């Protein structure tokens, strides 16, 4: 086919992972080649399309967005090659102009939805159109390539031994702008869901990782990119589900922020980003980046920030040139175009002066409004000359005499209240047209004109007499009062006096968490008895109804957020907070579940485990085990994501001395080892008695583990491995299986006798075991018969297992298929037996 032809851009050779090399075509003089007419025509057609696309991208503004989008879709996107070229141009433009990233991202969203899709229908289930288009796939591929090679072009210049020339400095600056522009563009696409959240997290993790053989001081570019992506898409990623991940990212950023190996500029960048999150992602004005703006928005900003009003261009064809160069205009009212400079260019051809008056406007000899003020000292609303009926009547008569020129501002100069409500106190004389009196109306002699007032103003109502009620104390005052009361209490230990004083403060509800926060903070650097007294004060305030458990949790989490700063002075702050939490659990101020919820997924790890440690220390292990079991907290979810598995959980709990909370985990790990070491029933029973609490002997989980361990041991002895294709067992193997079951019979009977529900659990353990083995033919039926004949499981348990419809254990359907006939026989035999007993 025709050779692929992409538009010429700076990054052309890097498109979709391709690097310059031998495969890149060199330019060859046309006379030395045989021209392929079709190829040449195709190349010219593509050149024309890419020129048109460049022109469209150069003209792209918020006002023309929809129109230019349609033009772009109609340039002739008829192949994947053209689509690749368009993506290359858009990405290149977005990288060079990071300020307009949001606009280019919107353009990509439109193209992802409306551009032709050249991928065939996928055999997989389509989730959404956005996720399956050729455009989206090629765009992500291009951005991935740019991301992976982000520092390459910058590092080329950093490796030079000699100082960089001015040209090299400029090239390095351009490369850096592109690097940061790519990151910002990725963030903007993430905001629009064109890039999945998981990809954004992967980018952040990549930027935070310290590479092997790379010194920390050389991570500057990556950390700058990290700050850029956080500023762009951080608020979108910082939601409840991803909070733990974001906390881990910012924890790492805080540690890097204080590392002196990094350049100061990077450390301050990290600090700004950390503070941005602490400020609920509300940027300081210096960092406010609103992206591209419409002309209307620029005019509104001019009014808001400078007090300068820029009117919209006239639609009647009146040009600025007429007012600048008219022979009828007096010299003092003429404007010098050069003086206006960029304002005239930015805001288009404007009637009259183009600039209004307002705060911050400097009056000089070029200002047309200066003449107004000189000739009419009572301007600004005190007295105004009514204008002629037609403000812009263009006859010689209107401009013959200077004194006939209206000194009243044109209607378009007058500000609209709805546009800038904040400026009204500063410019009360500027009224919207709707508030002005009719132009033909002349106020009576001797009366000032009534600007915008109704003829019959409403009567002034007398204000009700002020009550002598005191205003509530300010927040600073409340904080001082709280600190004074708490300090006095910790010195005097007079509980009732402190409770009364805090109640009498009558603090508003929104201040209560801060009040408790102060109680905690005031006691952190004091001895342990004082911390205990602070806990007593909090519990008493709860008992008196002054504060709630919710207030305590808010205060607790607020202090936790301040931990990085507090730890510099009080390194054991988390241990102290764990003591407060433990006392709150014991006093039933908060439940274990309420404490666990905000600490899930390793948030502030290992604080939750420290709280449990302190609770066990203050109370006892058995009490805590019961309480924890009732709370139904999933301990695996309380660990960092990387540690959320049973083996790692048991290891961590043993390290913290909390493995007593999960005795069955230890049993599951150790019992099979114990049986293998000594399979005699006496030894097994003694080990269980010594290591497992009698309370657990009637636990379904315990029975499940016991049965599973016995069955696994029997399989080991018979030489059977999980899931393998097995030949039917030999006669010797069947005999050995029966003998081993008989040897374990006393232990099974000890724990299962007269407990039908535990026997059902034992049958489910057998079902899961057979399912793991792939249900070898006859295995389940053999075990059912052995259990029945050896009187390990009773008839009621078999029938209860058959009727039970729980989906908790896999393989029930296959199991019933194998033993259904035997169960029917058992049911019939039991009915016959009961009939015989009746006779």
Plain-language structure description:
The chain has 839 residues and is an all-alpha fold. It is 56% helix and 0% strand. The protein is built from 36 helices and no strands. It is extended, with a radius of gyration of 40 Å.
For the largest beta-sheet, the strand count, sense and barrel status come to:
none
Distance from N terminus to C terminus (CA atoms, Å) equals 95 Å
Total of helices: 36
Which fold name is given in CATH as the topology of the domain at 43-118 and 132-279? Serine Threonine Protein Phosphatase 5, Tetratricopeptide repeat
What percentage of residues falls in helices of 4 or more residues?
55-70%
Instruction: Please indicate the percent range of residues in DSSP E strands (runs of 2 or more).
Output: under 5%
Q: Identify the CATH class of the domain at 43-118 and 132-279.
A: Mainly Alpha
**3D shape:** extended
Supply Rg. Answer: 40 Å
Structural class: mainly alpha
CATH architecture of the domain at 43-118 and 132-279: Alpha Horseshoe
Summarize this entry quickly.
Residues 477-600 form the MI domain. This protein has helices spanning 37-59, 65-73, 80-96, 101-114, 134-148, 152-158, 166-191, 197-208, 220-237, 243-257, 264-278, 295-306, 320-325, 337-340, 342-347, 368-375, 396-399, 475-492, 495-504, 512-524, 528-543, 549-561, 563-566, 573-586, 592-596, 607-618, 621-631, 646-655, 663-677, 681-691, 700-718, 731-752, 756-773, 779-789, 795-803, 812-838.
